[in-house]
Specification:
Layout (H helix, E strand, L loop, with lengths): L19 H12 L6 H5 L11 H9 L3 E7 L12 E5 L4 E8 L4 E5 L8 E4 H7 E10 L11 H4 L5 H6 L1 H17 L2 H16 L2 H49 L10 H9 L1 H9 L5 H4 L2 H12 L4 H45 L1 H6 L3 H54 L4 H42 L21 E8 L9 E8 L4 E6 L5 H8 L7 E6 L2 E2 L5 H6 L1 E4 L10 H6 L9 H11 L2 H6 L17 H13 L5 E5 L7 H14 L4 E5 L11 E6 L2 E7 H9 L8
Parallel strand pairs: 9-14, 9-15, 12-13, 13-14
Antiparallel strand pairs: 1-6, 2-3, 2-6, 3-4, 4-5, 7-8, 7-10, 10-11, 15-16
Helix pairs in contact: 1-3, 7-9, 8-9, 8-17, 9-11, 10-14, 11-17, 13-17, 14-16, 14-17, 16-17, 21-23
The structure holds adenosine-5'-diphosphate and magnesium ion (MG).
């Protein structure tokens, strides 16, 4: 393996190309005076190769209080009243169309790669590049605090709102169902006429006419049923994509304070969306539509013979009463099932995630025991649940048959009395099963509904959790340039923690200052870093960056300028390169910067000596690398985006002496102009800093120039908090 191997030879070269669509959106936003930064527009959106795609343009536009609507239209047919409009060009490019002069065959456009200036181009040239799709981007009206809030307008429900978007489809489904129900009358009529008219008179011609007629009705019925199922499915899958992506973005945007304590049980909640999906995707939902037709069928039976309706009414009331009686039991059981399922999943995720530790500590039997107990309980309740819900459908079926028998018995008496024909009896029998079917279906639906409603309820709770990026809040959109950090009387209590982790912490770091944060375990050093990253918000006091409260920064924008090496390093499944570039954001990184980051972090030798180079897989969580290597990756990841502030939480705790020395040398060079905060226990790293802050029990107990604090520590003059 050659040591000269160029580690970035296969780096795709388009990484640093401009994202033209995004640039266009920024330009249009500025024209409408809705300024927004690139980070804020695409924060958390799924990009392709780091670029905005037309599919998510609308979501990006919402961030700047704009709406974007994609249209397929010829250039000449675009509506000039809605200019400027973004034109999608061939090969994923884009430009902003300001003006169209059809008479002279010219157009005024802004090409993002040429900056803000507009240029006049010939219409035919533009036509050639135009892909046929354009996006109208219009401002939404911005309410201020004086506009009284209307709850509905402020936020539509995440679930029902999306379902409502498909109301046209559902309307068609309803229409189809009605027609299907009307068709259902045809069969009993056919049979009745055959018995009463055709058979006594041997009228085979009439028979054939009737048969052809009923055959045509049956064909229409089939077509309608197929269409109805397809429409329900279409509506469900449309909603599915939207709903799952809104759930995911809610999860990713969640405030850390709101993060649930258990990963496993939380993921179980998210997966329970499947049962909601199955519910809205099943055609049984439309069974409710059939319910009113019970009355129609009953009325038809009454036409044939009034006493024949009595069994139907009694049967329907009985089934519905039984289903209602089962409700509370079903509700209770499905909630229990759901809770124990989530808890069991929590055990599973925790054990699989920490398999090494589990084995090393011989905790297998404890976990196995807790799994088995949960499983046994789960299967017991699940069986009960199935029993109760299947009893509802069985009782409904039993009733349906009993009603049929009753109708026949009553019918025979009516025939004897001469009030009913034989054909009438058969028709009434057929109609009775049609009348009872929707009732059984509704009863079955009630049983199924509980599982989904429990899932929906728990998803509701997730969707109600506070998120970091508040919609409609105008974040300031300027980069962190100086790196002037100020903690002003900051206190923080973690949710559900008894003691506050930070207690009235105040200090100020000048731009370019290098500071070490030291203190005993649990003194609040890592907490302090998390506050600076706005992962948590102070319970009282404020953190300021460049003299601006960090709550005013868009979180993405803020973190973009802080290079952070966490104490517990998590890498993502993928290659070394993926992990390093994970910190680079949407604007990408050129090869030179990447190489520099490798060199600074000490990863260069690993990359050069390994056959896979930068494509070395790191495994989930970085499990294929050593602790020190993981730290080096985290450092490269922090440096690659050229941050203004460096925040290193015990960056060398897993490194050997030589690696640490090399890193120290590199950091001295790299951090020259930057504000740097190092949390450390290693005295050797102290030579990197000019100032030391000592923390104890969430308080600052000493703060001063390095020599002075070291001296005071040596003499034992630094006290403890309380
Ligand atoms: P250190 O100085 O060792 O980095 P930390 O800042 O990590 O200490 O922790 C400070 C205190 O806050 C500790 O008492 C710890 O128990 C508590 N703490 C840290 N993280 C959390 C959390 N996510 N939830 C609740 N308490 C926490
Ligand atoms: Mg710590």
């Amino acid at each position: 393996m050659s040591n000269e191997k160029d580690v970035t030879a296969d780096e795709p070269s388009n990484r640093t190309e401009t994202d033209e669509l995004l640039e266009c959106l920024v330009a249009v936003a500025a024209m409408h005076h809705h300024d927004a930064t690139r980070e804020a527009l695409v924060a958390g959106l799924p990009l392709e190769e780091g670029k905005l795609t037309p599919g998510v343009l609308g979501r990006a536009a919402t961030r700047a209080d704009l709406t974007a609507r994609l249209v397929k239209s010829r250039l000449s047919q675009l509506n000039p009243a809605l200019f400027p409009v973004i034109l999608l060009l061939e090969a994923g490019r884009a430009c902003v169309l300001l003006n169209l002069d059809l008479k002279n065959g010219q157009a005024e456009v802004i090409f993002p790669e040429l900056g803000d200036a507009s240029s006049i181009v010939s219409l035919s040239g533009l036509q050639d590049a135009y892909s046929g799709q354009a996006a109208y981007v219009r401002p939404k009206y911005r309410f201020d605090a004086r506009g009284p809030e209307v709850k509905k307008q402020r936020s539509r429900h995440w679930f029902w709102g999306v379902i409502r978007e498909n109301r046209k489809l559902y309307r068609d489904v309803l229409l189809g169902s009605m027609v299907i129900n009307l068709f259902a009358i045809a069969m009993p009529l056919f049979v009745m006429n055959v018995y009463d008219r055709v058979v006594p008179n041997a009228a085979t011609e009439t028979l054939w006419v009737l048969a052809v007629g009923i055959f045509i009705v049956l064909c229409f019925d089939l077509a309608l049923r197929l269409m109805r199922n397809a429409f329900v499915d279409l509506a469900a899958s449309r909603a599915d994509v939207k709903l799952t992506s809104s759930i995911m973005s809610r999860v990713l945007g969640m405030r850390m304070e709101a993060k649930p304590a258990s990963t496993g049980s939380f993921t179980a909640t998210l997966q329970s969306f499947e049962s909601v999906r199955a519910f809205i995707g099943s055609a049984t939902v439309v069974a409710l539509v059939d319910l009113p037709f019970v009355v129609l069928f009953a009325a038809l039976i009454a036409l044939i013979g009034v006493p024949l309706v009595i069994p139907i009414v009694v049967g329907a009331v009985f089934v519905l009463l039984y289903a209602l009686a089962a409700q509370s039991k079903l509700h209770e059981l499905s909630e229990t099932t759901w809770r124990i399922g989530a808890q069991r999943n929590a055990t599973l995720v925790e054990s699989v995630g920490n398999l090494e530790t589990v084995k090393a500590l011989r905790s297998e039997s404890r976990l196995q025991g807790s799994w088995e107990r949960a499983s046994a309980f789960l299967s017991r309740t699940a069986a009960q649940l199935r029993l109760v819900s299947s009893s509802v459908t069985s009782v409904a079926l039993w009733t349906q048959h009993t009603v049929a028998v009753a109708i026949i018995v009553i019918g025979v008496y009516l025939i004897i009395e001469g009030d009913l024909t034989q054909g009438g009896l058969i028709a009434a029998y057929l109609l009775s099963s049609r009348a009872m079917a929707p009732i059984s279906q509704a009863a079955g639906l009630m049983a199924q509904y509980h599982q989904s409603s429990t899932a929906l309820q728990s998803l509701n709770d997730v969707m109600d959790k506070p998120i970091e990026r508040v919609e409609g809040k105008a974040y300031i959109s300027r980069p962190v340039v100086r790196g002037d950090i100020k903690f002003d009387g900051v206190s923080l209590s973690y949710p559900e923690a008894e003691r506050s982790a930070l207690n009235d912490v105040s200090f100020r770091l000048k731009p370019g200052e290098k500071v070490a944060l030291i203190g005993r375990v649990g003194s609040g050093k890592s907490t302090l870093s998390k506050l600076l990253l706005a992962l948590y918000q102070p319970t009282s006091g404020a953190v300021l960056l460049d003299d601006v409260d960090i709550r005013q920064f868009d979180p993405m924008q803020l973190r973009r300028h802080i290079g952070y090496v966490p104490q517990d390093i998590a890498l993502f499944f993928g290659t070394l390169r993926d992990n390093i570039l994970a910190g680079a954001g949407s604007e990408g990184v050129d090869d030179e910067t990447l190489l520099e980051a490798l060199r600074l972090s000490g990863l260069e030798s690993l990359v050069k000596s390994h056959p896979h180079g930068l494509d070395l897989p790191v495994g989930e969580g970085g499990s294929m690398l050593s602790g020190g290597q993981r730290q080096a990756v985290a450092i490269a990841r922090a440096l690659v985006s050229a941050p203004t502030v460096l925040l290193l939480d015990e960056p060398t705790s897993a490194m050997d002496h030589a690696s640490e020395e090399a890193l120290k040398k590199n950091l001295t060079r790299f951090s020259e102009e930057k504000t740097m905060v190092i949390v450390t226990h290693r005295t050797s790293l102290l030579s990197l800093v000019d100032r030391i802050i000592v923390m104890d029990a969430g308080k600052v107990v000493a703060d001063g120039p390095r020599e002075q604090v070291v001296e005071a520590l040596r003499k034992g003059q630094v006290g403890r908090a309380n």
